[in-house]
Amino acid sequence: MDIMEAIRNRHSVRKFRHVDIEPGIIAQIRNEMFQCNEESGLNIQLQTNEPKAFNCFLAHYGHFENVKNYLCMIGPKKKKLEESIGYYGERLVLKAQQLGVDSCWVGMCYSRGNAVFELRDDEKLVCLIALGHGVDKGTPHKSKDISKVTKVTGEMPAWFKNGVESALLAPTAVNQQKFLFELAGDHKVKCSIKGIGFYTKVDLGIVKYHFEVGAGEPFDWV
Questions:
Q1: What backbone phi and psi angles, to 5 degrees, belong to 59?
Q2: Residues 23 and 76 in one domain
Q3: Are 17 and 135 in contact (CB under 8 A)?
Q4: Which terminus of the chain is more exposed, N or C, with fewer CB under 10 A?
Q5: Do residues 43 and 17 both lie within one domain?
Q6: Do 7 and 65 reside in the same domain of the chain?
Q7: pTM
């Protein structure tokens, strides 16, 4: 499965089967995680066969079942931490999808006190990403029309359109899709997102990663 197939096929999954993720696949996800940490300065951590974080009322309320593998999305406290978490977290989500592993971004529906992770003094846990073999493959979300999330003067270039279509397939908090992509010059793109919610900035990183993959050619963020 290539990455565009992963983008089209990946949907949030909250209920997982009692099947372990194969060691070889765990190794590949962990290797991708190390690469993300090295590039970004984040401290993402992978926990496997650890069910306590989702053994709580919040997880039950959020309809999570049998979650025992998860990524702890951690990084240094800085201005663009949440955006970086979204960008590199979605890179890991899509890598997992390519390897046949289902996933779900988790903002609050877990027990922080029972989750296993290590924080340095200057670091912050932003969220978790649940991983596993799903009971099903999730449900596609409805997407806005491309005209509602773009600002372009003149004809829309194919690479820009492809990027936006990829972004419309990205997961965002309660599927709000409050982002806007603006063609700001020759191969220059501005991305903004409305709202003041904490996970809005995570969404910004997620949709930027999707746009880059979908565009398929170099451009500059402005």
A1: -65, -40
A2: yes
A3: yes
A4: C
A5: yes
A6: yes
A7: 0.96
Whole domain around residue 190: which residue ranges? 146-221
CATH number at residue 197: 3.40.109
Q: Quickly tell me which residue has 């409305």 as its tokens.
A: 194
Distance of alpha carbon 46 from alpha carbon 183, whole angstroms = 37
Return per-residue pLDDT of the chain as tens, 222 residues: 999 999 999 999 999 999 999 999 999 999 999 999 999 999 999 999 999 999 999 999 999 999 999 999 999 999 999 999 999 999 999 999 999 999 999 999 999 999 999 999 999 999 999 999 999 999 998 899 999 999 999 999 999 999 999 999 999 987 789 999 999 999 999 999 987 677 899 999 999 999 999 999 999 999
Q: Which amino acid is at 182?
A: E
69 in the same domain as 28? yes
Residues 128, 151, single domain; the answer is no
